[in-house]
Design brief:
By secondary structure, the chain is an alpha+beta fold. It has three domains: 4-58, RNA-binding S4 domain (Structural Genomics Hypothetical 15.5 Kd Protein In mrcA-pckA Intergenic Region, Chain A), CATH 3.10.290.10; 65-125 and 208-231, Alpha-Beta Plaits (2-Layer Sandwich), CATH 3.30.70; 132-205, Alpha-Beta Plaits (2-Layer Sandwich). Helices cover 20% and strands 27% of the residues. Strands 7, 8, 9, 10, 11, 12, 13, 14 and 15 form a nine-stranded mixed beta sheet that branches. Strands 3-2-5-6 form a four-stranded antiparallel beta sheet, with no helix packed on it. It has a two-stranded antiparallel ribbon with strand order 1-4. A hairpin with a 2-residue loop joins strand 5 (51-53) and strand 6. The structure holds uracil. Uracil (URA) is lined by residues 103-104, 107, 184-187, 200.
Length: 233
């Protein structure tokens, strides 16, 4: 496990802001393995060192994982001047959390938010081709050859999509599973076969499946099984 600056570790544990934490250290109220901590910048290893704040042992769970049901109208970013971001939907204001991948402002559905950079990058790595399934509605009937063309791979100008799986659900809706995650990929694939996406919702990402009991804008921690599944892909 990584080492942390003491003040960052304390802030992440909700002990206080960096300046409050500094004050607690100055007063000798933070102890590392029984000894009063001296400097906010000193390094600690949460797995080896026992840290207490005013006598309370801090059991730091280093990584956190949230499944968010992203609503439309919210942007996938950590900070934005004009729009509400997905991070604004979380009660927890940890500064090390980030969304794994991007959904367009009008796209809904599954979004993973974590502070586990390694797993996040693995899920997004172009080399791993982590599957993502989207539910799609279009403004006109989906052409009958769309499934075949998605399966063959589509030339989208700057890249050719990998063979994708399409399941037609009604004349204007279906489920598309893609293996990469390029900018506006699903919308561009439907444009390429002659129809326009009017509603898009991500249902899965690798082993993660959107929990349909989550209302739009709601989130929950991943279960241990889900964490295990994404950490081992
Ligand atoms: N493809 C898109 O076009 N938009 C998204 O938000 C996700 C995939």
């Amino acid at each position: 496990m990584a080492e942390y600056r003491l003040d960052k570790f304390l802030a992440l544990n909700g002990v206080g802001t960096r300046s409050q934490v500094k004050e607690l250290i100055r007063k000798g109220l933070i102890r590392i393995n029984g000894e009063a901590a001296k400097k906010p910048e000193q390094k600690i290893d949460p797995q080896k060192d026992q840290i207490t704040a005013e006598g309370r042992i801090l059991n730091f769970s280093e990584t956190v994982y949230y499944m968010l049901h992203k609503p439309a109208g919210v942007i996938t970013a950590t900070d934005d001047k004009r729009h509400q971001t997905v991070m604004d939907l979380l009660e927890e204001k940890r500064t090390d959390l980030f969304p794994v991948g991007r959904l367009d402002i009008d796209t809904e559905g599954l979004l993973l938010i974590t502070n586990d950079g390694e797993t996040g990058h693995r899920l997004l790595s172009p080399k791993r081709h982590v599957d993502k399934t989207y539910y799609v509605e279009t403004d006109s009937p989906i052409p009958s050859d769309a499934g075949e063309r998605f399966a063959a791979g589509l030339d989208l100008g700057d890249f050719t999509s990998m063979p994708a799986h399409f399941e037609l659900l009604s004349p204007n809706s279906g489920k598309l599973t893609i293996h990469e995650g390029k900018f506006h990929q699903v919308k561009r694939m439907f444009e390429a076969v002659g129809t326009t996406v009017v509603y898009l919702k991500r249902l899965t990402m690798g082993p993660l499946v959107l929990d349909e009991t989550l209302e739009k804008g709601a989130y929950r921690k991943l279960t241990e099984t889900e964490v295990e599944a994404i950490r081992t892909i």
